[in-house]
Amino acid sequence: MLPLKHIGVPVAEIILTLMLSLRFINLVFDEVRNVALGIVSRRINWQQLTTMETVDVLASYIRRIFKNIFRHAEQISQAMIVRGFRGDSNTHKIYFLSGSSIGIADFISLFCLLGVTSAALLSDYFLF
């Protein structure tokens, strides 16, 4: 997308919007799945409903989906504000892990975990 930057396209804004959209798509699918499970669990007999009752039931579920989606969007917005995002996409940088970040502290922690686990297993073995 960098070539678009040379002709004046706000690339940083587009990238930020795409990344937020990717995060938000999961939430939308989860909400639709939860509402679909709610419909199935209520065991609605669709054949006995009139057309207006069917439209009313579907409208209430669509309303619930949008209400939950907007609630999640507000929570994401509040989380971004709390973490210091103020709306300028040029100052919001995304850092990808380029190399291994395993250090000596990680090895010491793993060694201690292995020691505690082996001590617990050996104590169970020798006590019985």
UniProtKB/TrEMBL annotation:
Which key words tag this protein in UniProt?
A: Membrane, Transmembrane, Transmembrane helix
**Topological category with respect to the lipid bilayer:** Multi-pass membrane protein
Keyword check for Magnesium: no
> Which regions span the lipid bilayer?
6-25, 94-122
**InterPro entries xref list:** ABC/ECF_trnsptr_transmembrane (IPR003339)
In terms of one coarse class, where is the protein primarily found?
A: membrane
Compartments, as annotated in UniProt: Membrane
User: Which N-terminal stretch is annotated as signal sequence?
Assistant: none
Q: Which CDD domains match?
A: EcfT
User: Which terms in the GO cellular component ontology are assigned?
Assistant: chloroplast; plasma membrane
For whether the record's keyword set contains Membrane, the answer is: yes
Pfam families per record = CbiQ
Protein known as: Uncharacterized protein
